[in-house]
Amino acid sequence: PSPQKRGVGWLRELDLEPAQMQKIQAIRRQSREQIDRQRQEIQQGQQELRSLMASDASAEQIREKYLQVKRVREELADTQFNSLLETRQVLTPDQRQKFAERMHRRRDINDRAPRS
């Protein structure tokens, strides 16, 4: 799916008012650029870490790269969480309940998914 359409389908389950949908889409647009940049930085850092592991780099150099990637992962998690909190503020109590249930189902599905 296109970046504009990805993830929007589940919002329909919440029976949002048009104004709520507009606010949530604005929140998503605002955070999308930062999330995409952080994901790209993580991907690049992981590649660099693999290269360092295969090279004669010192343990300290490898550790520094690992810590850098770890920090960006934490920043990404913070960005996603903050976006989630902003979205939550737009919802009514009933919608928050549906939202929480959906997130719980999604977490269950992700926990059962095989890891590569």
Write up what this structure looks like:
The protein has four helices and no strands. It has about 120 residues and is mainly alpha-helical. The chain has helices at about 10, 20-55, 60-90, 95-110. The relative contact order is 0.11. Residues about 1-5 have low confidence and may be disordered. The radius of gyration is 18 Å and the shape is elongated.
Gyration radius, in Å: 18 Å
The structure class reads mainly alpha
Largest sheet: none
Helical fraction equals over 70%
The counted number of beta strands is 0
Strand-and-helix sequence, N→C? HHHH
Average of per-residue pLDDT values: 87
* Basic shape: elongated
Strand content: under 5%
Unreliable runs, pLDDT <50, ≥5 residues?
1-6
Number of helices: 4
What is the end-to-end distance? Answer: 23 Å
Task: Show the helix and strand layout.
Blueprint: H1 9-12, H2 18-54, H3 59-90, H4 93-112
Helix pairs in contact: 2-3
Task: Briefly say what this structure is.
The protein is mainly alpha-helical and 116 residues long. Helix content is 80%, strand content 0%.
Question: What would the keywords be for this entry?
Answer:
4 helices; mainly alpha; 0% strand; disordered N terminus; 116 residues
